[in-house]
Design goal:
32% of the residues lie in helices and 24% in strands. By secondary structure, the protein is an alpha+beta fold. The protein has a single domain, classed as Roll (2,3-Dihydroxybiphenyl 1,2-Dioxygenase, domain 1). Bound molecules: 2-oxoadipic acid and nickel (II) ion (NI). It is an enzyme of class 1 (oxidoreductase).
């Protein structure tokens, strides 16, 4: 699959559960902006047929190359980032949950879900919008996961799909700061992620990021109970030049740690 086709499918699947992203993109386009994506992100379960190592070859098949690795101790995650030789194609941030670091009750729940994933689930890049590869969890299991790992609860309900797309502020014509973008979003009534402040990072770190709080939807669990869950969110990133004159093109653990919270249910 060509990368351009991949991102068309990915975006269509994403806006189905993230209507705010389509609205915000339309708003920018209506103001004469061309919206270029800085990156997209995915979440998955380690030690599963869809682990990071099993997914990576699908990204490589489209010309992506890994160039960074990250560890989130408190969230029990590892991640890698990938880029393409075509600078207009988004970077990709792929994280996986180290389930063995969660309490036994969570490991048991996730173990059941992972056991339902076909061994040969990864056949093509279409795996990145396969959604849930397991049956619906019970509301009780969901609550147990939520207590220990918001990421696990999100992944159990939403499965594999683009967790967010990210607008590249650098490539907007009428905005020179992330604060201006945030103000416009607030004025338009969107809820932004306030964990650690609206802006994650700083020019001195060469990366500033902000994000909306994820859209919400009603989800019916295996026991018939309905709850409101988080779907996906939209991010905004402004990259700065490093002393060598190049734009910083990687990610920052301290920023990412807070961006993950954009799918918090509260
Ligand atoms: C990924 C969070 C990290 C970034 O830009 O640092 C991230 C996620 O929420 O799955 O996207
Ligand atoms: Ni991101």
């Amino acid at each position: 699959m060509q990368a351009s086709e991949f991102f068309d499918f990915l975006w269509q699947n994403y806006i189905e559960v993230t209507p705010q992203a389509e609205q915000i993109q339309e708003m920018f386009k209506g103001n004469g902006e061309e919206v270029i994506n800085d990156h997209v992100a995915f979440r998955t379960f380690a030690h599963s047929p869809v682990s990071l190592a099993k997914l990576e070859p699908q990204l490589e098949s489209m010309g992506y190359v890994a160039y960074g690795a990250f560890r989130f101790e408190a969230k029990h995650l590892v991640a890698r980032c990938y880029k393409h030789a075509d600078p207009l194609l988004p970077k990709i941030f792929l994280s996986e949950l180290l389930t063995e670091e969660l309490p036994q009750n969570c490991q048991d729940i996730i173990g059941k879900l992972v056991a339902e994933i076909p061994e040969d689930a990864v056949q093509s890049p279409a795996i990145f919008w396969a959604k849930r590869l397991w049956n619906t969890v019970s509301s009780e299991d969901y609550e147990t996961l939520l207590e220990h790992s918001e990421y696990a609860a999100w992944l159990a309900t939403m499965g594999l799909q683009a967790n967010h797309f990210t607008v590249s502020i650098n490539q907007l014509n009428n905005f020179t700061s992330i604060e201006e973008v945030n103000q416009l979003l607030l004025d338009e009534g969107y809820t932004l992620n306030e964990v650690g402040g609206l802006v994650k990072g700083s020019p001195t770190l060469f990366l500033e990021q902000s994000s909306t709080m994820a859209d919400k939807m009603s989800f019916t669990f295996a026991d018939g109970k309905e709850k409101t869950i988080s779907t996906c969110f939209y991010e905004f990133a402004r990259r700065h030049e490093m002393p060598n004159g190049e734009l910083f093109d990687s990610f920052i653990e301290g920023n990412a740690d807070k961006i993950f919270d954009s799918t918090n249910v509260q």
